Amino acid sequence: MAWIRLPRFRRAVNVFNPKLFESLSLAAFLAWVGLGSDALSSSAYGPPEIYYALKGHEYLAVFLAIGIPISVFIISAGYKQVIALFPDGGGGYHTASTLLGPKAGLVSGSALIVDYVLTAAISVASGTETLLSSLPAYWYSERILIDVAILLFLIFINLRGMKESIKILLPIFMAFVGTHIIMLGFGLLSHVGDFPSIASNTIAGARNDDQLYGWIFIAALVMRAFSLGGGTYTGLEAVANGVHIMREPRIQTGQRTMTLLATSLSLVAGSLIFLYLMYHVHEHSGQTLNAVLYTAITSDWTIAGIHFGPTATVITLVTEGLLLFIAANTGIITAPIVMANMAVDRWLPERFSYLSDRFVSRNGILLVGFAAVAILLATGGHVSILVVLYSINVFITFTLTMAGLSKHWFTQRHHEPHWKGRLTISVLGFIVTASILAITIFEKFDAGGWFTLLVTLIVVVLGYLIYRHYKSIRKITAELDETMLDVVPEHLEPGPNLPLDPRGATAVFFVSRFDGLGLHTLLTAHRMVGGFVKNYVFLLAGIVGQGEFKGIKALEDLKVYVEAEANQYMAFCRNEGMAATWFATYSTDRILAMEELADVAIRYFPQSIFFAGRVIDNRARGPFHGLLHDEVSFIVQDRLQHDGFSMMIVPVHVHGIPSQPPRIELPISMSPDMELVQQEDADKEGSKAKAQAQETGEAAEQPTSGNSQDVPRN
Length: 714
Known about the structure:
Protein name: APC family permease
Organism: Acidithiobacillus montserratensis
Largest sheet: 5 strands, parallel
Radius of gyration: 34 Å
Mean pLDDT: 80
Distance between the termini: 86 Å
Number of helices: 24
Oligomer: single chain
Structural class: alpha/beta
Shape: elongated
Low-confidence stretches: 1-11, 696-714
Strand order of the largest sheet: 5-4-3-6-7
Strand content: 5-15%
């Protein structure tokens, strides 16, 4: 699929521009908007699920209204540690990979990818249903088309750039915050006098249930409610995943964003659960629990005799529904970041680590967006189905992250003076998240949770197979390097500065580093055209992907590496008496970089012939080879040939050329003085000749031995 190229919104920018990272990075407030909306939007379905689980024991809502903020701050405190340990981003994936091992990282990353795809799907479906509930009924039948249109719009604005998408959706986020501060704040303040009676009723209810069922029943009921409302916690990990896109100093910005997110989520979720109890809210047909609550809160809102409570309720619900679309955008933003980090570690195709000319992982955005579209179409956009699949995976990542942190701080107990407090937080986080994960799987397994786990397992297996493929390729290239680099002198000196002839024929090579593939291509081309080529030019493209887009320091390191590799080619050529030079550039787009390098070579050396190497190994080539390798050389070859320049792709057979000649099926005509010998006939002729030679040898030995007696002796 390397031939598929979407139109660019602008030409590639200078990646070494010192203002680039500042212009693209997010301050804490914008990061809260872009990455925190997933967690805040869960107020539309997380707290209601918790309250429904308490049916008949609603007094326990007081404990949950207190316990949820505590658990949110425990988990967020753990992720603040993740931000400090991994300021280059990666979040739960890097934490599990580094602290528990690569395979744990694969499981964590795979769970996050599936979770974010489901986040995009369920958020759009839920938001559409919320908005359509205030419209005529016939609109509801069009919800799938509306869902797909919204997802396509979110894909488009994210392709334009992450910061741009956040700014477009910022007014919706602020409207949600403003309306809910007014709604929830008024609901609490207007019933402050009810707090003593609620406290006494809670104590009485707890004593009664303790006598009837025991405290174990109460604890189990609270834990079950926690687990069924696990969707409330989703989105807390997004900040740690995207900390690398935040403004310097990253650690402080990331931790400040996490504080904003944890505080806002705790206030909204805790207040909702407490207000359900305070207003004695019960489920009404055709209305969400939040809609019933908002109606109760605004029931007596009047100004100058005009009752505007219903209008305020509708506005609040609309902002809630629209916020769900921003939550879907969070999934489309954050999943490609996780995928890019996994691609850098070779768990996913390397193309997912590439950045577009707008510095977003375009391949990841497209995959996540269209996967969400496919899920919506498969489930008919029914929130009741999607919600079952939703909250399991994020707790897999939570649990692995807290386990990794616990292991880290325990092993650092002799070196880190504050290890006890940090270990306590991570252990508490592990207990909370592991408990919710276990109960959620138990409760939702038969209702569809098994399908989420199956999909996650499939992603894990695919990731492992992709890693094995890349590992086999690395082994092949290592063998090629070991073989070819033997021709390089141990202490390579650049030799004299040989003059270049800009008007002479020039061999131009696309190379990535000083390795066996590049040397094989160079030596093959030298044997073919060395008789008339006057110059040897090497083109190197430093590709700025997710692994390099961490700041100016990482880009400077990339530049040093690329130039060192280029200088080795020039030194080798000069050592062999060949005039050589090199050109290098740095871009997020490999094809664009190679095209512009070719233009530079043509400008300086008009008589250029281009070469690129390609590793051929039939044993490692499978049906998905094209998805795992971009094969951009063929695209550049086509465009150079279109412009009138020759380019040869040199095959490098790492295990030798196949010994069997190709089979000939069609009748062949040829010149009268040319005779075609089939392989079968050649084998027969060879066997016959060998037998005749043996017979001739035996006959020659007999007369020699007989005539020796007749030789006269001197």
